[in-house]
Design brief:
The complex is a heterodimer of chains A (about 210) and B (about 325). Chain A has about 210 residues and is an alpha+beta fold. Chain A has one domain: Alpha-Beta Plaits (2-Layer Sandwich), CATH 3.30.70.20. Chain A is built from seven helices and ten strands. A four-stranded mixed beta sheet of chain A has the order 8-1-10-9, covered by helices on one side. A two-stranded antiparallel ribbon of chain A has the order 2-3. In chain A, strands 4-5 form a two-stranded antiparallel ribbon. Chain B is mostly helical. Chain B has one domain: Up-down Bundle (Formate dehydrogenase/DMSO reductase fold). Chain B is globular. The two termini of chain B are about 15 Å apart. The mean pLDDT of chain B is about 95. The chains are: A alpha+beta (about 210), B mainly alpha (about 325). At the A-B interface, strand 2, helix 2 and helix 3 of A face helix 1, strand 1, helix 5 and helix 10 of B.
Chain lengths: ~210, ~325
């Protein structure tokens, strides 16, 4: 079994239901996110369009975070999920430096690294991740990539023509198990969009201080 | 970058992870490690070549300086952890694909060997100043196996270990896949050059009373290390953009101005360019004071160059 995720960006309407569901399910502290939806505005007024891209851990097959973790706090589960053992983490932040997707954060309450685990605890009980359940348009698709009859496998099959299924930063050789349909450079490449102060819906964001370190 | 003009894409909502994750403590860590290992590498060379001229003073200076700076390096490695009390996990649950793990084990072993060298050095002092040293040192003087022969054997092991200890941070940087600017092969060379630069600079200051012949060798090591370090940084600065989009974005941010632009160039001048010039003139004039100035600048400048290189790739958004 190799669990994977796919988001159909053609369906996503940026409601952030997945983000909130994730926060609640995993008790993610203030200022931290395991999953967040990035908005990118494209075009010149009045011909503008807002795009929405949910971003979470890519559960890479060749995960740089797992490789650099000095104590195996980050480890693979048999189903392919890259899980984290917070009791073992020493808070060196090596994983944060290694993850090309900026998907790992330092939990300000426990002072340990944390990230999306595809809701491994729910999956172990046969449930879907919280974000999948919360999505009102079923843009989040989760399942077994090894099973050709699974919903995700069939979805990938149906959309792979003409490069319709993409991953973020394929050049990093991480082999992400998180796919996007309907995504282009603007959504998936962080350097393909400007970031200007004053253009963000939330400006001057402050962060909580960590206890010790950095 | 061209796509930005075509699409006029602007990020209007994103809450990225805080930018700088590894800050000045990691810079201090790398800088202190360069001195702690460099003194051993360069010092061992001097002992092999000029044993009669540098004598016992260098045998004492090597472990004293190395031990102090290795402890600064270890202290700030520990302080930088968000869970410093769990440091023991590295030894209890080692993960050998991680350069952090391999480095921590090697650095611990290396520090242990330097500590033994320090004990032997203290014993040497205790023997020569029998009456004026504390009782513990007087007892140490009676431990006969802590002699010069053991020192020589341990120093050989220390030299061999100093190389991977000084280099492993380059592998950590290589494993930091998100920071495209750092590539292991280049960083390995930079780390080794930094150790040679720092080691020769510190020994030039410490060995002020040594003969000019010894200082000349140290000056050449300092000048050559500075030259090659500078060449590599310039190679990265001007040609790095050809490697990858992220490297181009990182370097563009530095080249276009701002605090890190100035800090980068101040570092290059202080660490490499001015010391190279001073070494050249000191070799002409046999001036020790020029060498002392070159050494002090190189040590300060090394911190700045390492800091800029550590921070700049962390300023690029990942998502």
């Amino acid at each position: 079994m190799k669990l994977g995720f796919l988001v159909d960006l053609n369906l996503c309407m940026g409601c952030k239901g997945c983000e909130v569901a994730c926060k609640v399910e995993n008790k993610v502290p203030l200022h931290s996110w395991r999953l967040r939806v990035k908005y990118v505005d494209v075009g010149v007024y009045p011909e503008t369009k807002r795009t929405y891209t949910p971003l979470r851990c890519n559960h890479c097959e060749n995960a740089p975070c797992e490789r650099i973790c000095p104590v195996s706090a980050l480890h693979y589960l048999e189903n392919g999920i890259v899980n984290i053992d917070k009791d073992r983490c020493i808070g060196c932040a090596g994983c944060m430096m290694a993850c090309p997707y900026g998907a790992i954060y330092m939990d300000p309450e426990t002072n340990t690294a944390d990230k999306c685990t595809y809701c491994a605890h729910r999956v172990a009980s046969g449930m879907m991740p919280a974000c999948v359940v919360a999505c009102p348009v079923e843009a989040n698709i989760f399942g077994d990539l090894d099973d050709p009859t699974s919903h995700i496998s069939r979805y990938i099959m149906a959309h792979q023509k003409d490069g319709g299924v993409k991953v973020r930063k394929p050049e990093k050789n991480t082999h992400p198990k998180h796919f996007y349909v309907g995504g282009g450079e603007v959504q998936l490449n962080p350097l393909a969009a400007k970031r200007e102060e004053g253009y963000n819906l939330f400006n001057k964001i402050t962060h909580l201080d960590h206890i010790g370190g950095h | 970058m061209d796509t930005i003009s075509a699409t006029n894409a602007i990020v209007t909502l994103d809450v990225p992870i805080p930018e700088v994750i590894w800050g000045w403590m990691i810079t201090l860590n790398m800088w202190a490690k360069s001195i702690g290992t460099g003194v051993v590498l360069v010092g061992a060379y001097l002992l092999a070549r000029y044993k009669d001229k540098v004598g016992d003073s260098l045998k004492i200076a090597i472990p004293v300086i190395s031990f102090i700076f290795l402890n600064i390096f270890l202290l700030f490695t520990l302080l930088d952890l968000h869970q410093p009390l769990r440091m023991w996990h590295i030894f209890a649950y080692p993960h050998w694909t991680s350069a952090i793990t391999v480095g921590a084990w090697m650095a611990t072993l290396f520090t242990g060997i330097i500590f033994l060298l320090l004990i032997i050095a203290i014993r040497k002092v205790a023997i020569s100043h029998k009456e004026s040293v504390p009782k513990l040192c007087q007892k140490l003087a009676k431990v006969e196996f802590l002699d010069d022969e053991l020192y020589s054997k341990l120093l050989k092991v220390a030299v061999v270990l100093a190389i991977p200890v000084t280099l492993y941070t380059a592998t950590i940087m290589g494993e930091a896949t998100a920071r495209e600017l750092w590539q292991t092969p280049t960083e390995l060379v930079q780390m080794l050059l930094a150790a040679l630069l720092a080691g020769s600079a510190v020994l030039l200051i410490v060995g002020n009373g040594w003969s000019y012949e010894v200082k000349k060798d140290l000056a050449i090591i300092l000048g050559v290390s500075a030259f090659f370090s500078f060449i590599i940084y310039m190679g990265e600065y001007f040609f790095g953009h050809m490697k990858a989009e992220e490297v181009a974005a990182t370097l563009k941010a530095v080249q276009e101005g701002g605090a890190y632009h100035y800090l980068f160039w101040v570092g290059q001048w202080i660490a490499f360019i001015i010391p190279m010039v001073l070494v050249y003139f000191s070799l002409k004039s046999k001036s020790s004071s020029l060498l002392n100035l070159a050494s002090a600048l190189a040590i300060i400048g090394l911190f700045l160059t390492k800091h800029v290189w550590l921070i700049i790739p962390q300023l690029i958004p990942l998502s």
